[in-house]
Amino acid sequence: xxxxxxxxxxxxxxxxxxxxxxxxxxxxxxxxxxxxxxxxxxxxxxxxxxxxxxxxxxxxxxxxxxxxxxxxxxxxxxxxxxxxxxxxxxxxxxxxxxxxxxxxxxxxxxxxxxxxxxxxxxxxxxxxxxxxxxxxxxxxxxxxxxxxxxxxxxxxxxxxxxxxxxxxxxxxxxxxxxxxxxxxxxxxxxxxxxxxxxxxxxxxxxxxxxxxxxxxxxxxxxxxxxxxxxxxxxxxxxxxxxxxxxxxxxxxxxxxxxxxxxxxxxxxxxxxxxxxxxxxxxxx
Length: 284
Ligand SMILES: Cc1ncc(C[n+]2csc(CCOP(=O)(O)OP(=O)(O)O)c2C)c(N)n1
Ligand SMILES: [Mg+2]
Description:
Elements: H1 15-33, H2 38-55, E1 70-73, H3 79-88, H4 129-142, E2 149-154, H5 161-172, E3 178-184, H6 193-196, H7 202-209, E4 212-217, H8 221-233, E5 240-245, H9 253-256, H10 270-280
Helix pairs in contact: 1-2, 1-3, 1-10, 2-3, 2-8, 4-5
This protein binds thiamine diphosphate and magnesium ion.
């Protein structure tokens, strides 16, 4: 199958500004509900900006265009972050922001494919995204599609056996069109991921399984962009992973320095304060 390229990623808006816009939209949605996985959204915003405004090939007017790169949100609880970038990319209309989490909204608090344009899978049951991505990448390869499949997963999912079955099958099927993105924020429901299971050297582990692997600072946009470029350009005859070390709540200092948990509580009066702090750091 040959498909034309529809790259809408090029724009004069800098990636830093895109990431800032993603953080702002996520905070605005959090304010609507008085809650949300805001620590994760602020932490992963740079990775999402580089994904949607540097790496991915897609058509915002036609989210189901057959030639698109697929972006799978394995971590359904990060939906607030994906909605923010889907709005920024023009796939979701911005005027739906205020419906976040409400009955009949297209933006439920956990990501669901049947509700939201641009949400490729229903990923809230953790540990399944990479397996689905393997299947999609295999199918696209069989159709001779040039599209990539990106799977965004969390460090908590690295402790699930289903992830490692998918890791092996990706190698077995030589899926050089599969790029796994790991948001390594060193946090999961019960505390630090590095304290939950003996993880060892994550980078060496993925390499030992046969993946092309990189580990970079996920809040350094230049490093993030370079890692995407390297992953796509590599001639490695198998799948690629980029492990992004990220800081939860990045960009809002009084939240960054708060004792971090899986669910960062933001008091009613703190949403406006968080937006004001973010405003001070707006890129030119
Ligand atoms: C299979 C499964 N088990 C448990 C949960 C409950 N759960 C929701 S989020 C979460 C934390 C997982 O770790 P991670 O995604 O790294 O958390 P975060 O970085 O968002 O704190 C858990 C255990 C789930 N959604 N699915
Ligand atoms: Mg985590």
